[in-house]
Amino acid sequence: MDATALAANFENKLAKNENIEPKDWMPDNYRKHLIRQISQHAHSEVVGMLPEGNWITRAPSLRRKMVLLAKVQDEGGHGLYLYSAAETLGISREELLHQLLSGKAKYSSIFNYPTLSWADMGAIGWLVDGAAIMNQVMLQRTSYGPYARAMVRICKEESFHQRQGYEIMSVLAAGSPEQKAMAQDALNRFWWPTLMMFGPSDANSANSENAIKWKIKRESNDQLRQRFVNQTIPQAELIGLTIPDAQLKWNEAKQGYDFGEPDWEEFNQVIHGNGPCNKERLGARLKAHDDGKWVREAAAAYASKRKLVAA
Ligand code: 3HC
Predict the structure, then answer these.
(1) Mean pLDDT of all residues in 164-178
(2) What is the residue with the minimal CA distance to atom 8 of ligand 1?
(3) Whose CA is nearest to atom 45 of ligand 1?
(4) Residue 130 in contact with residue 232, Cβ under 8 Å?
(5) pTM (2 decimals)?
(6) How many C-beta atoms lie closer than 10 Å to residue 194's C-beta?
(7) Which tens digit of pLDDT belongs to each residue from 52-84?
(8) How many CB atoms are located within 10 Å of the residue 242 CB?
(9) Rounded to the nearest whole angstrom, what is the distance from the C-alpha of residue 38 to the centroid of ligand 1?
(10) For residue range 264-295, what is the model confidence (pLDDT) as tens digits?
(11) Are the C-beta atoms of 154 and 78 separated by less than 8 Å?
(12) Hey, whose CA ends up nearest to atom 5 of ligand 1?
């Protein structure tokens, strides 16, 4: 097929909502866009293990500890599926990790905030995983096959994460005045950074136009943010917590809430390396990479020995 026929075939598949698969022809910019988004997503899962990992040794009961351990392990697994999906686009795992560790690649802004109390485990599960699901349900229908398939399992697990977080918050909110205050404080600190997870407003979202055109994203940053707010307010009300937004108001005409504007200057600082924990997070990943060097070397030596034996 010549170049025009290949491009027409690609457009035709998109129009029919058929998946694009690794061996199919695709425009270079589609490939680059996916590598950027899928790898940012993978890095977010792996860096996202750190703020919660911080509380595994201090979980208040054995049950809480087992659930948190399982959740943090799930995030590591999500990172692995997503790195594999990115590799099908022709980039190596080494290069992807190099991009993260050298500070070139972004990961979700939310993981650059500290986890100061046990209630933060509740707030992260409820809000952060809740926002992640809101964004990721649509990604099950994203146009690139390996990414769409990875998202099916990820969404199921994220749904458990959201519920465990909401359960922690419900128990704290119904507990002693000190426990309720701890839950409210976690909500106060995580609310605005969670809204920022959806990315800049549509007017300032550089990548959205292509993402929508290529059916990588099916809904815009603002649409998803609005849906998240609409879904979360009644959940907060049910457990007696207050969303820290004086502008929050039901809007009958749009059948949704009006809400305040996140601090986009803070967002820009965080995604450019200047959030409260950026250096700590990257430092932890660098240390893990260095500590794992002997394992990679041993695995490579074992693989070449087996090759010799087989030959
Ligand atoms: N954190 C860090 N960077 C962000 C960001 C955020 N919350 N939101 C946007 N950005 C960056 C974009 O990457 C882009 O920078 P780049 O061009 O250098 O890559 C720039 O800000 C402009 O944003 P756009 O709206 O143009 O970018 P996108 O169209 O890519 O939208 C996104 C951003 C909504 C995050 C999109 O990339 C996306 O849907 N990604 C897949 C989902 C994902 O990455 N989720 C991470 C959440 S955490 C998670 O899943 C872990 C779970 O366990 C909680």
Answers:
(1) 98
(2) 199
(3) 41
(4) yes
(5) 0.96
(6) 27
(7) 999 999 999 999 999 999 999 999 999 999 999
(8) 12
(9) 10
(10) 999 999 999 999 999 999 999 999 999 999 99
(11) yes
(12) 199
